[in-house]
Amino acid sequence: MKKFWIVLLSLGLIMAFSVPAFAVDVKFNGEYKVQGIYEDNVTENNAFGKNQGSSLTWQRLRIGTEFKVAEGLTLTTRFDALERVWGAPRSVYPTAQPVNTLGTSNSGPWRDAESQNIAFEQAFATFNAVYGVFKVGYQTQGRFGTAFGDNGERDNGPRVKYEFVSGPWNFAGVWDKIDGARNNPAYAPAGAMDIDIEKYQMYGIYKWSKGEGGLLLVYQNNTSKSDPVLGTDYRAQTYTANPFFKGTFGPVYVEAEAAYVWGKQQSVVVPLTGKYDQDRAGYYGYIMGKVDLAPFYVGAAVFYVSGDDGQDTSKNKSGPGTGTDFNPCLMMLNYDLYRLGGFAGNTASPYGFNTSDGSGMNNVYAYHIFAGVKPIPKMDIKVSWTLAGFNETSTAANGTTNPKPGQSKDIGNEFDLTATYKIYDNLTYMVGAAYFMTGDFFNGAPGVNATTKSDYLLTHMLTLSF
Questions:
Q1: Which residues, including other chains, have CB under 8 Å from residue 438's CB and lie 6 or more apart?
Q2: Which of 56, 226, 233, 327 is most deeply buried (CB count within 10 A of its CB)?
Q3: 57, exposed or middle or buried, with CB in 10 Å at 0-12, 13-18, 19+?
């Protein structure tokens, strides 16, 4: 009898301690994506005959969960599972690679064993306090305004954010730590402490019935390459002003964004050879307009990102990258193509990404024209043309994917055709084709005279969202 009461008491205690957990309200959201890709001529080079084509299929399952613990208090998590190329080995690299290193990024679905199993990218608490809302923990970073210049698809890291909303106004203060920069083993000896990247940000956004506009101000302190033992006290202190605008005027939609970065940075040099300060001064501008003539629509976009010719060592004029979230084409500036590797976005092909951390392109301009028709509500057929080129030539030290003196700045033209159909409200299927006409840049620097040819890509993708 005594044992019976002990068991009964134990069950009662378990139920009592479990009551708060039963009150938690849980919401799920997510996406499953699978895409097949075939590219005919990966290197844009005709010297190797017809053996430069490549194909693959990749997938990703993304699950987000929100736990409502109490009124005004939630815990949010997100993870990616089985993000990998079909049939690829578990891991290409035997050891983990730096997160923001071009060509070895852990964000690629074939790079890292963790990303091919379950990789938690976000975990943060949201709570109401002091007339506003706090969000503390690993969150999406690098998103503001339009998709141009944003790196939200790639950047998830430590963030403390306070947001205050009053009527149409939204104000926020943000402190970010950049993931992967802390005690970077490529530069830091064991025990070195002040080696990371921090961002201090504040923004204001005003919203009205048919649009919004805002301004983001950023101060970044970058000591990720400092090494006090070897004497390389590299530091970059930069400031960014980033305004944006979105608005609908009858059948016309317009969005625009600009950014200007300035400040000081020290050159990365071999110890004991001296150092010098550089002025940081880069910028970009982007504008897109779309006219809805249902069932037809037409639009155009143009953007410009400053570049550095490398001739004046006292200045760095490279602009912020175009971003990982901005994907106007199936080949050029397409982040998924870049990170899959061996395709248009790899380190040898500049019409994908040419910044050192894979955050888009700088030193580039482009014109983008598109048109489409929705013959039925569930179908969207779209065609586009994009012309792109570089703004500056540069020395080899300024990046191997930028044109050298005397080399053409013409990247080329791309024609895209896509058709998207909603099988269900939450399930879409897309088929697409792209044709890339290589520009004279691919002929190489003077005296190289490479043999190039155009390239095409075929793709289809199934996306399930919930």
A1: 44, 412, 452, 453, 454, 455
A2: 226
A3: middle
What tokens were used for 177?
């730590």
**What is the C-alpha separation between 321 and 306, in angstroms, rounded?**
9
- Averaged over successive runs of 10 residues, the pLDDT of the chain (466 residues) comes to 48 46 79 92 55 80 95 95 79 42 40 66 94 96 94 90 96 91 56 75 97 97 68 77 98 98 73 64 96 97 91 83 90 80 44 61 92 97 95 66 82 95 97 92 74 86 97
Q: Do 115 and 97 meet the contact criterion of CB atoms below 8 Å apart?
A: no
Distance CA 365, CA 371 (A): 21
Report how far residue 207's alpha carbon sits from residue 447's, in angstroms, rounded to the nearest whole number: 55
3-class DSSP state of 44: coil
pLDDT value at residue 68: 95
* 339-382 confidence digits (pLDDT tens): 775 443 344 444 555 555 567 788 899 999 999 999 999 999 99
- 3-state secondary structure at position 261: strand
Please give the pLDDT value at position 442: 80
Compute the chain's Rg from CA coordinates: 25
Closest CA to 41 of 31, 49, 30: 49
Instruction: Kindly list the structural domains of the chain, giving each domain's residue range(s) and its CATH number in brackets, ordered by start.
Output: 25-465 (2.40.160.100)
Query: What is the residue-wise DSSP string for 197-212?
Result: EEEEEEEEEEEETTEE
Q: What is the pTM of this model?
A: 0.85
Cα 330 from Cα 325, distance rounded (Å): 13
Q: What is the DSSP letter of 117?
A: S
Contact 302, 322 (CB under 8 A): no
Q: What is the pLDDT of residue 236?
A: 83
Q: Are 454 and 41 in contact (CB under 8 A)?
A: yes
**117 token code pair:** 């199993």
Q: Which of 349, 346, 387 is nearest to 370 (CA)?
A: 387
d(CA 111, CA 124): 26
Spell out the residues 6+ positions from residue 164 whose beta carbon is closer than 8 angstroms to its own: 131, 132, 133, 170, 171, 172
Q: Indicate the pairing of strand 211-222 with strand 252-266.
A: unpaired
pLDDT of 314: 79
Q: How far apart are CA 328 and CA 101, in angstroms?
A: 24
pLDDT for res 401? 65
The span from the CA of 292 to the CA of 299, in Å, is 9
The phi, psi pair for 15, rounded to 5°, reads: -65, -40
